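Quick one:
INPUT:
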């Protein structure tokens, strides 16, 4: 089975590993990754927090705290739409990382928070373009971008280019982030 979810049986949260596996498998082709790729989704059900991370590219391994997949209105229950948004964004980052033309930094190399945020915006925007619109991600993401890059017209313009972007490189994302930050420093 190309998608492996651990644990196979959840005991602390009411998640179904098969449901997570199926939605991850569906996302693979939609985000442009090989649908037969080996993907490991590790869910830490002992943490109600929402931390997520790509821990490996070979095989692709996604680490998620159970809070990242939880329905905010129904504690301990899986939010399929929310899970699609979280896993989809991570898979888009994986897609970027395995594309040599994208020019991503090595996995595990720390990024400055504004740059990491800009890349997340780019991934979330592409996921939105694919039709994954569980809740108004755009407004929430815009607020986070403004917190990292400033509440300026220039920052908003950079956000729009990231959100609507397709085919950007890491260097272009760096430039957009720096331009938005430059507007904050100049004001």
């Amino acid at each position: 089975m190309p998608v492996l979810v651990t644990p196979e049986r959840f005991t602390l949260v009411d998640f179904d590993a098969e449901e997570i596996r199926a939605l991850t498998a569906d996302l693979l082709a939609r985000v442009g990754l090989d649908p037969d790729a080996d993907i490991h989704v590790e869910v830490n059900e002992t943490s109600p927090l929402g931390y997520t991370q790509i821990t490996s590219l070979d095989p692709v391994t996604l680490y998620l705290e159970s809070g990242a997949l939880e329905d905010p209105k129904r504690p301990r229950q899986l939010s399929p739409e929310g899970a699609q948004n979280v896993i989809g964004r991570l898979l888009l980052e994986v897609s970027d990382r395995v594309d040599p033309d994208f020019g991503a930094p090595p996995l595990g190399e720390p990024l400055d928070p504004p740059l990491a945020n800009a890349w997340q915006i780019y991934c979330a925007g592409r996921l939105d373009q694919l039709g994954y619109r569980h809740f108004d991600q755009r407004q929430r993401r815009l607020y986070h971008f403004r917190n990292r890059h400033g509440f300026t017209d220039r920052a908003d313009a950079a956000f729009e280019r990231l959100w609507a972007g397709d085919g950007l490189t890491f260097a272009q994302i760096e430039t957009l982030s720096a331009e938005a930050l430059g507007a904050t420093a100049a004001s």
